[in-house]
Amino acid sequence: MANVKTGLNSIVKYLSTKKETGRRSIGLLVDGPNVLRKEFNVNLEEIRDVLKEYGNVKIGRVFLNQYASDKLVEAIENNGFEPIICSSDVDVRLAVEGMELVCNPTIDTLALVTRDADFKPLLNKANEHGKETIIFGVEPGFSTALRNSADYVIVLENDQMNYYEEYLTESKSRDEDIDDDIVPGSRRKKDAMMDY
């Protein structure tokens, strides 16, 4: 894993401590319109590599709207994911597919890549059915409700990937330098996009 982004090794180490005797069977679902944007620079290959250290990615689907470019669809396929083009609401289709994974006895872990609080009920159902949940959230705008519903939280921001506790430590040291930009009672900067 040459040329790995900062923090990736700590993620691999963190998730490897969570391994059980058997490898986990993982279903990975990506909210394409919400996270596959130039400003976020999300690397699906790195996400897959991190999950491979934890278990076997049995299902990898990226949900896109009908406006997705052919180059994006091709890049998703080249990374080993299945692109799902939705003519209607992407969130609804992802939630339905997610519930199918929750009810699938061969899947142990549900992993989501999103910022959207709309998937909190899906994570709750997965937890109710004994599935482990991993959320890869993208900042800015990563839903606090979503973050608090998953077993493992990995935050993607500024081309870095950190598990949540490490992210808080780094954010706290950065926030000390810009305290006057913080909204009172919140960890968010003024004028930051909110996604609730």
From TrEMBL:
Extract the InterPro entries matched here. Answer: CHP00288 (IPR002790), NYN (IPR021139)
Positions of the region Disordered?
175-196
Q: Which GO terms describe its molecular function?
A: RNA nuclease activity
* Residues in NYN domain copies: 26-157
Q: List the protein's name.
A: TIGR00288 family NYN domain-containing protein
